[in-house]
C-alpha cells in the first residue's frame, strides 16, 4: 500500500514518518448490502478509515488479537453486539464504542439508508493486522470494496 509504512513496520526502530493529510469522500453507491472501507491514513501502529455500511450490511462475529479499535458513528445508526449476541448498544451520530483487542464483536446497520462509521485502529507494533472469524461471514469478499484516500485499490469490479 505505502512503501514507507511497510518499511517502517519491518524496521526495529520506528523512524519518523511524514505527516499525512486526508479528505474523506463517500464512495458512489454501488448496491445495497455491501460494505466499503475508505482508508484515509495509516502508520505502522495506527490507521484511520471510514466504513460505509449500505442498508442491510454489517460485520460477522470476529476479533482482533493485535488491534484495539475505536468506532464512532458519523451518519445513520449501528448496533454492536458481543459473543453470544450480547447487546452493546445502538449508536447514532457522534456516538460509539471502544473495542479492546481479543473481544469478539459484530455490528449491523439499522434503519433506513446507509451508515458511516469512523474507525481508528491501534496496532501492536510489528504484529500487523490480525482478524479471526468466529462465525460465517455476513457478506462475501466481493461485497467489500476497499479505497485508499478515495482511490479504489481492491481488484473487484
Would you write up a description of this structure?
This protein is mostly beta strands. The chain has a single domain (42-152), classed as Jelly Rolls (Sandwich). 5% of the residues lie in helices and 45% in strands. It has one helix and twelve strands; from the N terminus they run H-E-E-E-E-E-E-E-E-E-E-E-E. The chain has one helix spanning 3-10; strands spanning 35-42, 46-53, 58-63, 67-75, 77-82, 87-91, 96-99, 105-110, 115-123, 132-133, 144-148, 151-152. The protein has a seven-stranded mixed sheet with strand order 7-4-9-2-1-11-12, with no helix packed on it. A hairpin with a 2-residue loop joins strand 11 (144-148) and strand 12 (151-152). It is globular and about 45 Å long. Residues 8-12 have low confidence and may be disordered.
CATH architecture: Sandwich
Domain count: 1
Helix/strand-derived category reads mainly beta
Question: Radius of gyration, rounded?
Answer: 16 Å
Unreliable segments of 5+ consecutive residues: 8-12
Amino acid at each position: 500500500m505505502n512503501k514507507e509504512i511497510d518499511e517502517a513496520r519491518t524496521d526495529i526502530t520506528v523512524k519518523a514518518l511524514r505527516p499525512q493529510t486526508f479528505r474523506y469522500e463517500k464512495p458512489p453507491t454501488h448496491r445495497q448490502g455491501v460494505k466499503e472501507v475508505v482508508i484515509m491514513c495509516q502508520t505502522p501502529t495506527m490507521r484511520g478509515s471510514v466504513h460505509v455500511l449500505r442498508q442491510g450490511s454489517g460485520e460477522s462475529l470476529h476479533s482482533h488479537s493485535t488491534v484495539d479499535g475505536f468506532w464512532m458513528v458519523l451518519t445513520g445508526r449501528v448496533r454492536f453486539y458481543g459473543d453470544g449476541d450480547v447487546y452493546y448498544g445502538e449508536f447514532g451520530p457522534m456516538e460509539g464504542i471502544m473495542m479492546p483487542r481479543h473481544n469478539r464483536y459484530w455490528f449491523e446497520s439499522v434503519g433506513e439508508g446507509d451508515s458511516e462509521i469512523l474507525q481508528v485502529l491501534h496496532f501492536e507494533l510489528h504484529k500487523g493486522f490480525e482478524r479471526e472469524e468466529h462465525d460465517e461471514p455476513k457478506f462475501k469478499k466481493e461485497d467489500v470494496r476497499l479505497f485508499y484516500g478515495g482511490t479504489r485499490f481492491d481488484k473487484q469490479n
